[in-house]
Write a structure and sequence with these properties.
It is built from 17 helices and four strands. It has about 425 residues and is mainly alpha-helical.
């Protein structure tokens, strides 16, 4: 930085790309150092947290006091969640505004969708819902609605509810439908619902840009909270393109992977999930166990190939999600679920060897110094990731500008004008 400032003052030419590449190296070195420190401290915590034997009452499809900690991934996969959460937590008036959005979507569902009730059509969904929530030890009522489009989704933050596409369910057998419901309910277990709700708010404002200023001014007239929410909307609009929009899509895909694992845990069988992934891409075209199994194997290989390209940096997950924001990512989910089922953590949880919410709370309470160190390192890693993303974005901009300039330099020269016709010969 000092060298850059010195060259700027002296008027010497600077090579911004070289500076960025050097900074990128420094950021990566800092990331590697702090990753190592963080993983060591996390390892210390994990070794102390896991029980010597199965959790009492675990087994037969029940996992008492199960904590999302058991599904925790490396920071490379989870840092975007922290970035999005930090933006939303700093959004003025977010709680009041998201509560209003919750009520609006719930009212819309009551006005347009069918609420599943005991004794009515599709009431078996209620029993499947309760069984899944009991398996994860989640005690809350989650209303179910059926619609004629839109797929499966969870709406609401403090009082979430599920909307399912009954046309899609009609093409599935009962076990496959149970998997769809369980993997959708998994979002309630893992949380991050505020991220999805915040993004839906941005979508609403995007659809009526001419009204957003009026809405902001109207909110500004509300006593006490109105001005705060109005400023929050403007802030949200400014950061949406930078992080929230792409983060929501990536977080959504990441959460699908976690929810698939949780659903299989509740069902105790991965076969319905495997069949469902095939149905997503082939529908009724896949008939018979052998054909479905062959198609699933092919999906897994496709997902494996995609994963390798992601790891090598040949594909940007942001762009992949933005190109297909509503895509099911069946092949990638099939591969990641198979990978999880081969992981030792999956087998441990199935045997009842997992970290409980109570144990994690007590450990964090009695080991505050270690938890503070972990939180500090997580924050530093998050900052370095954000800086790396900014450096990479500026590098891509420089490369694009250089490519455009090069294309302009090699533009074909205009063809010379044809010589004027010769005058007629003298007679």
């Amino acid at each position: 930085m000092f060298e850059s400032l010195k060259r700027a003052i002296s008027g010497e030419p600077t090579d911004r790309r070289a500076e960025l590449l050097a900074e990128r190296v420094r950021v990566l070195e800092g990331l590697e150092q702090r990753r190592s420190m963080l993983e060591e401290k996390r390892r210390t915590r994990v070794e102390a947290l896991f029980p010597d034997g199965p959790v009492p009452g675990a087994g037969a499809g029940r996992f008492p006091d199960l904590d999302p900690f058991n599904f925790e991934e490396a920071e490379e996969q989870s840092w975007l969640v922290a970035v999005a959460q930090r933006i939303i937590d700093g959004f003025p008036g977010s709680e009041a505004l998201l509560s209003q959005l919750d009520a609006t979507f719930r009212g819309f569902s009551d006005a347009n969708h069918y609420r599943v009730v005991e004794g009515g059509p599709w009431d078996r969904l209620l029993g499947w819902r309760d069984a899944a929530l009991r398996a994860w030890d989640v005690e809350r009522d989650v209303p179910l609605y059926l619609s004629s489009s839109g797929g499966a989704r969870v709406l609401g933050c403090k009082e979430p509810f599920v909307v399912l596409d009954h046309m899609a369910l009609a093409g599935l057998d009962d076990d496959e439908a149970r998997f769809v419901l369980a993997t959708t309910l998994g979002h309630v277990f893992f949380g991050n619902l505020r991220i999805f709700a915040f993004h839906r708010l941005m979508e609403v404002l995007d659809k009526m840009p001419s009204m957003s200023g009026l809405i902001a001014r109207g909110l500004g007239m509300l006593p006490a909270i109105g001005n705060t929410i109005s400023r929050g909307i403007e802030l949200a609009r400014s950061v949406n393109d930078q992080m929230i929009r792409k983060t929501n899509l990536v977080v959504g895909l990441r959460q699908h992977l976690l929810c698939d694992r949780l659903a299989v845990l509740a069902l105790g069988d991965a076969a319905p999930a495997e069949r469902y992934f095939v149905r997503l891409v082939l529908g009724a075209a896949a008939a018979g166990d052998e054909q479905v199994a062959a198609a699933h194997r092919r999906l897994v290989e496709q997902g494996r190939s995609l994963h390798e390209r992601l790891i090598e940096g040949k594909i940007d997950l942001h762009m992949l999600s933005i190109v297909g924001p509503t895509a099911a990512f069946a092949a990638y989910r099939a591969f990641k679920l198979g990978e999880w089922l081969e992981d030792d953590r999956s087998a441990r949880i199935a045997r009842g060897l997992y970290v409980t919410r109570t144990r994690l709370y007590e450990y964090r309470r009695t080991h505050r110094a270690l938890e503070d160190e972990i939180r500090f390192l997580e924050g530093r890693v998050l900052e370095l990731h954000e800086r790396l993303a900014k450096v990479d974005e500026e590098l891509r901009g420089l490369d694009a500008a250089a490519a455009a300039a090069a294309a302009a330099d090699v533009a074909p020269e205009p063809e010379p004008a044809s010589p004027p016709p010769a005058p007629p010969a003298a007679s």
